[in-house]
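Protein: Helix-turn-helix domain-containing protein
Species: Solidesulfovibrio magneticus
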Amino acid sequence: MIVDPTRTAYSTREVAEILGVHEETIRREVQRGHLKAAKLGRMFIISKADLAAYYEAKGGGRLFEDDAQE
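Structure follows.
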């Protein structure tokens, strides 16, 4: 999946595609409090900043090329 650098939030499905894991894995990480997300109706929305922080905490380094500018 090509990550759009102008995006500021992602669905659990999009995050799963970005990280190469199953969507249910992302939902579990949100429910366990390991990945911050906002609930919008029945969906979870994950901010770009929270996704980057989660990825870095898991030892993945920088996820977005423009992270250094944020």
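Remarks: Residues 48-57 form the longest helix (10 residues).
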